[in-house]
């Protein structure tokens, strides 16, 4: 069973990146108010989240259950596709 804190961390990093790329909702509207969605800063924010997720995948390889590993892999793949990496 996936650890709720791990799921929350992955979802939070992915949501931050998606908000920076323009996928706003009520939970991420504050990023726009804080200036995190302006031009190159938005892309840097998204890239930073992707980098953190990639590092997390590297550091936890072999220590996650199937669901956690799949969640992390899917989040990384979705952000790479959006960023063109």
Description:
The protein has one domain (4-28, 35-83). The protein has four helices and no strands. It has helices spanning 4-20, 29-33, 39-60, 66-83. Helix 1 (4-20) runs antiparallel to helix 3 and helix 3 (39-60) packs antiparallel against helix 4 (66-83). The chain starts with a helix and ends with a helix. The model has no long low-confidence stretch (mean pLDDT 86).
Short description:
This is DUF1844 domain-containing protein. With about 80 residues, the protein is an all-alpha fold. The protein is built from 4 helices and no strands.
Features:
mainly alpha; DUF1844 domain-containing protein; 85 residues; 4 helices
Let me know the largest β-sheet: none
Q: Which ranges are low-confidence, i.e. pLDDT below 50, for 5 or more consecutive residues?
A: none
% residues in beta strands: under 5%
Helix/strand structural class: mainly alpha
Percent range of helical residues: over 70%
Number of strands: 0
Q: Tell me the distance between the termini.
A: 31 Å
The radius of gyration over CA amounts to: 13 Å
Q: Helix count, per DSSP?
A: 4
Q: Write down the domain tally.
A: 1
Mean pLDDT rating: 86
Can you tell me the overall shape? elongated
Series of H and E elements: HHHH
